[in-house]
Amino acid sequence: MTPWREEAVLAEGPLFRVSLASDESGCRWVLKARAADVRDDPVSALRLEKEARILCGQSHISGIPRFHSFADGVLVMEWLQCGSLLERAEKVACEGRSVAWPTRVARWVLALSQTLQELHAEGIVHRDVKPANVLLRVEYEPALIDFGVAVDGPAGRSLPRPWREDAVGTPGYAAPELRADPEAAVDPAIDVYGLSATAYALLHLRRPGHESERSAPVPNSGFGTLLARGLSPSPQDRPPLQAFIDELSASVGQRTV
Ligand SMILES: Nc1ncnc2c1ncn2[C@@H]1O[C@H](COP(=O)(O)OP(=O)(O)O)[C@@H](O)[C@H]1O
Ligand SMILES: [Mg+2]
Q1: Among 5, 8, 9, 6, which residue's Cα sits nearest to residue 17?
Q2: Distance 213 CA to ligand 2 centre (A)
Q3: Is the peptide bond before 208 cis (omega within 30 degrees of 0)?
Q4: Residues 6+ apart with CB under 8 A from 115
Q5: Among 6, 7, 12, 18, which is best to mutate for testing ligand 1, by the most ligand atoms less than 8 A from CB?
Q6: Which of 48, 90, 146, 149 to mutate to test the pocket of ligand 1 (most atoms within 8 A of CB)?
């Protein structure tokens, strides 16, 4: 019998159902399980298993949800209570941005760059970095969620044979090479693109479109130049994450929020 008492459904997508539940002592956790319609689908099972493997194996990385357990097809993890960066951006788009908004974005992007660097050092590429997949633990502690299409390990594939990845990533945030061939695209530069697209979307309050229709990201700033390079169609033209860390640590350190 499950020890969980479900309190609310947080999200119900085509593949996964995410709910908030409390344990016997009243502590709240988030449960992620396959949606009823895909209960017999091996691909969603493999994706959830991989997500559990990554959260469990990388528990030393603070910028991802804390792992509780994975049993009977249910992944139990930390409840990140302060909403997503997408929700923040939507709110700011409605209410208008304050002068502090670019600095807040810079602080989130700095923390995300550090988390991605730690993941890459472990051979993990997330491949779906976007504002909806970044939740806040507290105001300036973003955590990257949703490792369903990540690649982990030297095999460099997100699904074992005989399954194939057909479409991976989210339009506007996925690097061109990932859209072109998800099976071949396993390079960390994919996350530099997703990170840059996320930062662009937060700063401009709209999803980055095709290169030709993009407005120049934050002109005359080191951050703007980095974003433009991070959104390069060619992976080899994108800067390393360390460039984001160096630039943003210097700039957020100089400003007050
Ligand atoms: N640890 C968590 N804490 C709070 N909410 C979460 C957590 N994990 C997922 N969610 C909620 O569930 C939604 C879907 O989760 P996600 O892992 O992104 O699944 P999907 O693969 O369906 O996109 C998220 O956008 C968020 O609203
Ligand atoms: Mg998601």
Answers
A1: 9
A2: 26
A3: no
A4: 61, 62, 63, 64, 142, 143, 144
A5: 18
A6: 146
- pLDDT, tens digit, for every residue of 212-249? 666 665 656 889 999 999 999 999 999 999 999 999 99
The answer to whether residue 256 scores a pLDDT higher than 50 is no
Cβ(124) – ligand 1 distance below 6 Å: no
What architecture does CATH give domain 85-254? Orthogonal Bundle (1.10)
Three-class SS of 92-142? HHHHCCCCCHHHHHHHHHHHHHHHHHHHHHCCEECCCCCHHHEEEEECCEE
How far apart are the C-alpha atoms of 112 and 129, rounded to whole Å?
9
- Architecture of the domain delimited by 5-78: 2-Layer Sandwich (3.30)
Q: And the tokens for 227? A: 């974003």
Torsion of CA 238, 241, 247, 253, to 10 degrees: 160
In whole angstroms, give the CA distance from residue 221 to residue 161: 45
Q: pTM of this prediction? A: 0.94
Q: CA-to-CA distance for 103 and 252, rounded, in angstroms?
A: 6
Domain boundaries, the chain: 5-78, 85-254
Q: Is the CB of 79 under 6 A from ligand 1?
A: yes
Q: Retrieve residue 197's tokens.
A: 């697209």
* pLDDT at position 2: 64
Instruction: For tokens 């030393």, name the residue.
Output: 60
